[in-house]
């Protein structure tokens, strides 16, 4: 079996796009807020979370996390070129706006 063991942390690139296809649903509730914090610390103000189209369960989970986050100013489905309803665009508050 290749890759890191399941309990070993995986380092994610903080490049403005988070693709959740490789994560288990149980991991998303901790992963998304931590990733948003890292993006905000890097000064990113807009990011994209790719959750896929599927049944919409993961999208609803992501939207619930975003709705509760003080780091998030707004969010909306991506345009077709950015993944359509299989991805969500997130506008982040600047770090000082949260204070």
TrEMBL record:
Residues 18-93 form the Smr domain. It comes from the Bacteria. InterPro entries: Smr_dom (IPR002625), Smr_dom_sf (IPR036063). PROSITE patterns: SMR. This is Smr domain-containing protein. It comes from Anaeromyxobacter diazotrophicus.
């Amino acid at each position: 079996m290749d890759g890191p063991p399941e309990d070993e942390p995986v380092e994610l690139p903080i490049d403005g796009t988070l693709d959740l296809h490789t994560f288990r649903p149980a991991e998303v509730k901790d992963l998304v807020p931590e990733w948003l914090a890292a993006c905000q610390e890097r000064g990113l103000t807009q990011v994209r979370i790719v959750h896929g189209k599927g049944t919409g369960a993961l999208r609803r989970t992501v939207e619930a996390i975003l709705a509760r986050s003080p780091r998030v100013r707004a969010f909306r489905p991506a345009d077709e070129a950015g993944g359509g309803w299989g991805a969500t665009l997130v506008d982040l508050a600047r770090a000082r706006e949260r204070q």
